[in-house]
Amino acid sequence: MANKCNITCKWMEASRYVVNPDGQVLPCCYFANRMSLLQKFPDPKRVKQGEFEVYNAEIMAYDFHNKGEVLMNSYLAQLEDNNLDNRSLPEIMDGKWFNELYDSWDDSDKVPLVCLKYCQND
Ligand code: SF4
Fold first, then answer.
1. What are the pLDDT tens digits along the chain (122 aa)?
2. How far is the CA of 2 from the centre of ligand 1 (A)?
């Protein structure tokens, strides 16, 4: 899929996605891990020393509140819409948030950091 940020979504190419035990649907494990960190540590300044070692230090080093988190924060605001308790999988995959994700690959102000880190072509 051609886009301005030169992203090739590895999971979409493989027709894969993540469903958490609570029914949350996410586009990939990179996203799911980062989302988990954001929920656990909403304010990175308050993360205790040592907790960094438990999680991926490289990802934790990113600024949680920079422009790369637009999509993460948008997902958190639409949690219920992306849960299988409330919508079918096709409805979720073609829903508002997933379309925001696809559109973000054409917008350097919104493209998620994980997409740049793991799926941007050289
Ligand atoms: S990081 Fe982004 S581009 Fe890569 S698999 Fe996940 S959603 Fe797709």
1. 689 999 999 999 999 999 999 999 999 998 898 788 777 766 655 556 555 544 544 455 455 545 457 888 889 889 999 999 999 999 999 999 999 999 999 998 888 888 988 999 98
2. 14
The 8-class DSSP code of residue 83 comes to: B
Collect contacts of 72-75 with beta carbons under 8 A, ≥24 apart.
Answer: 72/34, 72/35, 72/38, 72/112, 73/38, 74/100, 75/26, 75/35
> Are 77 and 26 contacting, i.e. CB atoms less than 8 angstroms apart?
no
Reported pTM: 0.83
Ligand 1: residue whose CA is nearest its atom 3: 9
- CA distances (Å), origin 48, targets 51, 52, 107, 120, 121: 6, 8, 34, 32, 35
End-to-end CA, the chain: 15
Looking at the DSSP bridge assignments, the partners of residue 23 are: none
C-beta 119 within 6 A of ligand 1: yes
- Alpha carbon 46 to chain centroid, angstroms: 22
